[in-house]
Design a protein that fits this description.
Layout lengths: L25 E5 H22 L23 H8 L5 H16 L5 H10 L6 H11 L20 H5 L1 H5 L5 H12 L6 H16 L5 H8 L8 H15 L4 H12 L17 H15 L3 H10 L6 H14 L6 H8 L13 H18 L3 E3 L2 E5 L16 E11 L6 E5 L1 E8 L15 E8 L2 E9 L10 E3 L5 E9 L8 E10 L4
Antiparallel strand pairs: 1-3, 2-3, 4-11, 5-10, 6-9, 6-11, 7-8, 7-10
Helix pairs in contact: 1-15, 1-17, 3-4, 3-17, 4-5, 8-9, 9-10, 9-15, 11-12, 11-13, 12-13, 13-14, 13-15, 14-15
Length: 511
C-alpha cells in the first residue's frame, strides 16, 4: 500500500520511529492534509454505502459469491439521491448529530440531540425507532437505549451513525468515545453501543496510521475484553492471521461462532441478523482482507452479507480516512463528484457542506484536547485508548422459544408462558400499516396490559410509521416461572385490527 502522506510528511514531527505500528504521542499535519482525510472519510462512507446498496439483507447468512457481479455504473450515486435517497440513512443519521454540534457547539446538551433525533422526518427502524418512541413517550437519556426499555439494544443502529465521532476526533480515540457516550446510549446498550464506539475509534486512529492491522487492533483496546463484542473482533483478527489469504474461511467461522442473535425480535430464531457483533465482524473482514485496497475492502465487506450497505460504508469511511480523498480511486470519485452538492434526504446538508462542518469541529476538538491550530498546520495530541466500562444487554436471559400466533388481538387467547421474559410482536392489520386501506396516522391504540392478572401499564400504539412502537409489549427480569399476559384494547375502532404476530420467551441461560 502507498505510504500515507501524513506518515512521512515533512510537517509530521515527533512521530513514532516505527510509523504505523505504534501510536505517536503527537503529530503535526497541514490543514490541507487534515481536510483531505476528513473528506476521504465522508466520501468513503458514501461510496461504500452505494456500492453495497442493492445487496442489503438479500444475503442473510450466506456470502455473496465472487461469481455474482456487483455493478458500479456511471451516475450511480446521483441515481440513488434521485430515486432512493433513503439508502443514505447511514449518512443523514450522522448528519443529525453533526448539525447539532455545528449549531450548538461541542458541549451541546443531550436534550438537543434527542430533539433533533426524535423529531426528524426520516423513517427509523429497530433500536433507533424504539429510542424515538421512548423519547416521545418521556423515556429519555440512557434509559431510551437501555435493553430493558429497548429490545433492539444490541442492534447495529449506533454502529452505522457513529462515524461523526471519529471524524471530529482525529488521533484522539478517547475524545471519539466521549462523543459516542450519551448519543450512542440514546438508542443502544452493551454490544450495540460498542459497535459505534469501535467504529469511531478506528476512524480516529485512521488519521494517524496507515497500517490497517494496527488500527483495528489498537482501536479494540477501547472495548472490554469480557464482552461478546470483543471476543468476536478478537477472533476475526486471530483468524485473519491464521488464514490471511482466504476471507471466506474467517466469514464461515464468524457465522458458526458469532451469528446467533438473542435480542432483536426480528432476528431471534430467524434467518436475519442485524446484531452489531456479526455486522462489525464484516466491517473488520473487509478492512483486514482488503489490505488497504479501497475496491477490495468495500467489495469483501459487501460480500459478507447481512447489512451489506452499512458495513462497506463503515469500512470505506475508515479506509477513506486513512487514504485521504485524493487517493480514492477515480472510478468512484467520478460518481461522487457529481453528487457532492446534493443535499442528503431530510437535511439541508450536502457532502460539500459536511466537509467544512467536520473540519471546523475537528479543529475545535483538537484544541480542546491539548492540541493547537497555528496558521496552516495543526498539532494533534494523540491519545492512547482507554477501555470503556463493561455493560451487557439481556444479561441472564436466553431465548427459549419463538411462538407464532397470527391472530387478531380481540380473538387471541391469553398468552401463557414459562420463563423470565417475553417480547410480543404485532402489526396493525395483518402486515405493514401504512399501505393498507383505513390507515390513519392520527390514530393511536391504547392497550391495557394485564400481567399475571394485574394491570401493569397502558401501551400507546401510534399508527403513524414515524411514531410507531416496534413491539407490542416486552418485559424482562420477571421471576422465573409461569406467567400470563393478556390485552384490553381501550379505544378500539371497527375498521382497524391489531394482530399479535409472535412472541419470544426468555429463560435463564444454561450453565
Amino acid at each position: 500500500m502507498k505510504s500515507s502522506i501524513l506518515g512521512f510528511s515533512a510537517l509530521a514531527i515527533i512521530f513514532a520511529s516505527c510509523a504505523g505500528t505504534q501510536l505517536p504521542s503527537e503529530i503535526t499535519l497541514s490543514k490541507a492534509e487534515l481536510q483531505d482525510k476528513i473528506m476521504g472519510a465522508w466520501a468513503g462512507q458514501t461510496i461504500g454505502c452505494t456500492y453495497g446498496g442493492p445487496t442489503e439483507f438479500r444475503y442473510s447468512g450466506t456470502m455473496i459469491n465472487d461469481n455474482i457481479p456487483i455493478e458500479w455504473p456511471d451516475g450511480y450515486i446521483k441515481w440513488y439521491h434521485d430515486n432512493f435517497p433513503g439508502l443514505y440513512d447511514d449518512i443523514y443519521m450522522d448528519l443529525t448529530f453533526v448539525d447539532v454540534f455545528d449549531k450548538e457547539g461541542l458541549d451541546a446538551p443531550i436534550e438537543s440531540f434527542e430533539k433533533a433525533f426524535s423529531q426528524a422526518e426520516y423513517m427509523l427502524w429497530h433500536a433507533n425507532q424504539q429510542a424515538r418512541y421512548n423519547i416521545r413517550q418521556g423515556i429519555t437519556g440512557r434509559a431510551a437505549g437501555h435493553w430493558e426499555n429497548n429490545p433492539h439494544a444490541d442492534d447495529i443502529d449506533f454502529q452505522i451513525e457513529a462515524d461523526y465521532a471519529g471524524i471530529m476526533s482525529p488521533g484522539m480515540v478517547n475524545a471519539a468515545v466521549h462523543y459516542c457516550d450519551e448519543i450512542g446510549h440514546m438508542m443502544n446498550y452493551g454490544d450495540g453501543w460498542y459497535g459505534g464506539v469501535y467504529v469511531a475509534a478506528m476512524y480516529a486512529l485512521a488519521f494517524v496510521s496507515d497500517d490497517v492491522n494496527f488500527v483495528v487492533e489498537e482501536a479494540l483496546k477501547v472495548i472490554p475484553e469480557q464482552s461478546r463484542y470483543h471476543r468476536c473482533m478478537s477472533d476475526v483478527i486471530k483468524w485473519h492471521k491464521m488464514y490471511p489469504d482466504n476471507w471466506e474461511i474467517t466469514w464461515a467461522l464468524c457465522q458458526k461462532n458469532h451469528s446467533f442473535d438473542i435480542g432483536c425480535p426480528d432476528g431471534v430464531y430467524r434467518h436475519f441478523n442485524i446484531d452489531a457483533v456479526i455486522n462489525s465482524a464484516y466491517i473488520l473482514i473487509g478492512l483486514l482482507y482488503g489490505e488497504g485496497d479501497f475496491t477490495r475492502t468495500i467489495d469483501i465487506s459487501t460480500r459478507c452479507g447481512y447489512d451489506s450497505d452499512c458495513n462497506p460504508a463503515s469500512a470505506g469511511g475508515i479506509l477513506g480516512t486513512m487514504l485521504g480523498y485524493s487517493n480514492i480511486p477515480e472510478k468512484y470519485m467520478k460518481n461522487l463528484r457529481e453528487s457532492e452538492d446534493i443535499d442528503f434526504a431530510y437535511t439541508d446538508i450536502s457532502l460539500n457542506d459536511v466537509y467544512g462542518m467536520s473540519m471546523r469541529q475537528a479543529l475545535q476538538v483538537i484544541e480542546k484536547n491539548g492540541g493547537k491550530s497555528d496558521g496552516e498546520t495543526v498539532t494533534i495530541k494523540c491519545q492512547k485508548p482507554e477501555t470503556v466500562g463493561f455493560e451487557e444487554a439481556f444479561a441472564g436471559h436466553w431465548p427459549k422459544s419463538l411462538v407464532h400466533v397470527n391472530k387478531e388481538i380481540r380473538q387471541a387467547d391469553e398468552i401463557m408462558f414459562e420463563g423470565k421474559g417475553i417480547v410480543i410482536g404485532y402489526s396493525f392489520f395483518n402486515g405493514h400499516s401504512h399501505d393498507k386501506p383505513g390507515f390513519d396516522p392520527s390514530y393511536a391504540a391504547e392497550m391495557e396490559v394485564i400481567l399475571d392478572g394485574t394491570p401493569i401499564e397502558k401501551v400507546i400504539l401510534p399508527m403513524d410509521e414515524n411514531s410507531r412502537k416496534p413491539e407490542l409489549f416486552y418485559k424482562y427480569n420477571l421471576a422465573s416461572g409461569q406467567h400470563s399476559v393478556r390485552f384490553n384494547w381501550l379505544n378500539p375502532l371497527s375498521d382497524k385490527n391489531i394482530y399479535i404476530k409472535s412472541y419470544i420467551v426468555y429463560t435463564e441461560p444454561s450453565k
